[in-house]
Amino acid sequence: MSERIEKVTVGVPITKLDDDQRIAYGWASVVQKDGQHLVDVQGDMIEVHELEKAAHMYVQRSREAGDAHTRKTGIGSLVESFVVTPEKLEKMGLGPDALPLGWWVGYKVHDESVWSKVKSGEYAMFSIGGLGKRKAA
After folding, report:
1. What's the Rg (C-alpha) of the chain?
2. pTM for this prediction
3. Sign of CA dihedral 104, 68, 38, 17
4. Domain coordinates in residue numbering, the chain
5. In three state form, how does the secondary structure of 42-84 look?
6. pLDDT below 70 — which residues of the chain?
């Protein structure tokens, strides 16, 4: 099995806005829904436990929001993060398909022009980027 490291980007719609607090909420990534593994736009599948590791690393090291994967300083900051795994659903007393498996986030947006784009729908989704090891089957 060969492996190569590639930069990946995944987009998921923003689902809730809190205009008073300037916070956008939604799924940063969904990897499984209704028992079905989801494939991203690059044709890849991420295991929820690998997503959880990446989310923990991001929360520990950065928490900075960017603007279209370019400018980061002063755009916004992560204020909420929760990775849904089968084990967490079970411990909460929820069924295995009660929620998608994935990463739910909330970002407080500090930059006025970015917040305007979020509110208008121009920026309608979160887009996470990172590095991953691609494994050939």
Report:
1. 15
2. 0.83
3. positive
4. 3-129
5. CCCCCCHHHHHHHHHHHHHHCCEEEECCCEEEEEEEEEEEEEE
6. 1-12, 71, 130-132, 136-137
